[in-house]
Amino acid sequence: MLRMISKLHEGTLKIYIGPVSGSGKTYHMLRDGNDLREQGIDVVICAVSTMRRPETVEQLGELERVPSIHWIRHSDGAEMKDLNLEALLARNPEVVLVDGLAHRNRAGAAHATRLEDIRFLLRHNISVMTTVNVYELEGYTELARQLTGVRATYTVPADTLELADEVKLIDVTPETILSRLAAGHLQGHGNTDVFRQGNVGILRELALKLVAEGVNETLREHREGMGLPATTGIMERILVSAQYHWNGSLYIQRGQQIARRLNGSLHAVVFRQMKQPLSKEAAVFRRSMMKLVEKIGGQMQELPILHRRYIPAALAHYAMEQQITRIVMGHSRRTRWQELWQGSIINSLLRQLQGVDLLLVADRVATEGERVLPAKVSDAEPRTYRRLSEQEMKEQIGLIRRGAFKIYIGAAPGVGKTYMMLREGNDLLRKGIDVQIGLLETHGRADTVKQIGALTIIPRVQRLYQGSQLEEMDTEAILRNHPEVVLVDELAHTNVPGGAWHKRYEDVLQLLDAGISVITTVNVQHLESLNDAVEHITGVRVRETVPDRIIQSADEVQLIDVAPEALRQRMREGKIYASAKVEQALANFFRMGNLIALRELALRELADVVDERLEAQQSPRTLRGPWRQEEIVFVCVSNDRHAERLIRRGFRMAYRLKAAWYVHHVHIGTTISGELQEYLSSLEQLTVRLGGYFHIHYSSRLREVPDILAAKAVEVKATQLVVGQARRVWWLNGHRGSGSVVNRLVRLSRHRDVLIVADDDYK
Predict the structure, then answer these.
(1) Distance between CA 128 and CA 44 in Å, rounded?
(2) What pLDDT, in 10s, does the model give residues 91-121?
(3) Which residues have C-beta within 8 Å of that of residue 639, sequence separation ≥ 6?
(4) Which of 106, 306, 435, 436 has the lowest tally of Cβ within 10 angstroms?
(5) Please, what is the angle between helix 311-321 and helix 345-352, to 10°?
(6) Strand, coil or helix: what is 213?
(7) Where is the Signal transduction histidine kinase osmosensitive K+ channel sensor N-terminal domain (predicted)?
(8) What DSSP element (H or E) covers 616?
(9) Cα Rg for the chain, rounded, in angstroms?
(10) Whether pTM exceeds 0.85
């Protein structure tokens, strides 16, 4: 309570973090400062560096400047700016904007660092907005140096972001940075090694992951404060259950691979009878496993157990306490009759787990040896003197002619995607590029309307539907005008029936194929593979979706990040929806917990996209962990409502592994009813839309199902099997015990990994 009271007498701290200098942190800080000024808040600037970038200089507007203290750094002769604390205290503004959180002050200054200056101002009830690069945060400085060779001149403590009341990520694509560099807008930013495309990508991913971790912690605190379970369904927490045995380290290594590729944390647990001393062999394995866990940055714990039959209950309880999302363990080595007589840890564990996946790791050592290789495919075939066929020639020409594709993505409506799209359109227009607006949805937002500027809007086409005149993007008119760049809002929109295409993204693909570059917007909840995660977070099933391949095909994907409270404030001010809808929106989709979780989802999803692009460039420095080559994912689905979720899960696994993937369904009987056929067709459409292959097989008896699936998995050389938990998948129910279909399927698949997806999994 005393802390809360004292906080009332302190200023508010907002930190803008970006991957590199020149990412736009100062621009956004000044823009937000002008917004505050228009609201009647007293805002000044001090020690702000625009680097003479036109867009940033423009944002200075009428903001009052408190002169900084200028001095020359002896080491390199650079001109430096310190905060003039005396002048700021005498002026006593409500908010001060200042660049360079990691700045070091001149000799003899009242404080050694700008961070100390800022804390001084906060104690005097002056709020501060400031900027920092991700590689200037201790804890990330060394990692950035190892991955990119970039060395930070000055740093701030790793826990600095925890001091902030708000952290805002300013995302930037390597292409944008290179464009700014070519235009001469990044002069004076120091180390040019930072601006190499590969380095920008790595530092960008670091920034995304750093902010995502902070958002996850914020969500945990929010949910605990609301008396809700802390787990989010977004942050992966991997638990490896092992024994002091030769394969213990193998399971831990596999768990680490999964944790790193899923951007999660790693935990390891070993159950042992504490009263019995370890054998010499077990003691050796114990030391090696503990060293391994420590080396890879995981956590390991020994738990006491009286008898192995208590392990499932203890493991399920531990998983719930630690908010585990996936347990990794080895396949059972027992026969069917041993399981019937002595019981099965896996079967018992599955009955007790709630919301936790179970991955059974194949024992490949005996047959092929452990392979730990990068996920990326082998290098492209060397160029030969073979003449291209006519079809191959057309495909290559099509790729050359195709327009560039950029997507602005956000966590929710109102974050500023359309604003930034229009701003970029005007920037391109000033450079002499023919930019036109193909489709714009301003939703009556004054700030967005102002950004239209000199851009030409192509009129929409009128379509009659069910007695009403509705408007749609006029794709034919855009093709006739053939601008160099067209701006298209709301990529996930479903078109009014009557046009050439069902979805707006199909119109966009046509424009790209015609050689027209497209800049567009989308919210993270519209990605097809995240449909289940979004429903879990918000309670709303999003009907308008975009296949993930559309995002993957974009040349640039840029995140527009806004803190949830700032977004809710925009809502209250009527800047997102009409006043009549505000209270309903704040109480439903725009609830604080929803917005925090969606923000984390957007940050992690884009971090995945960035890392995939780094791997596609065959960079050895990506943050992802290694995986084996030539993975094949095999998804088993029934005809229940959970089938779509399993298909999306299979896609996300295959996408991370760069693997081919197949979906298989076994129908009991020889004929399929019309209703079931329609549902299976929708499953096939979903699979194909996500890039997989769908197959239906027939069986006269339920007992044949596992044999059919196992045989088909062998045919496609599957390395990963994905199934749902037996109690929710009707064809896996069977009889309780080792005779059930799911257990037989697992026994037949001991030479491959088997992922048993939790009933309420929404990853």
Answers:
(1) 10
(2) 999 999 999 999 999 999 999 999 999 999 9
(3) 665, 667, 676, 679, 680
(4) 306
(5) 40
(6) helix
(7) 10-215, 401-610
(8) helix 592-616
(9) 28
(10) no
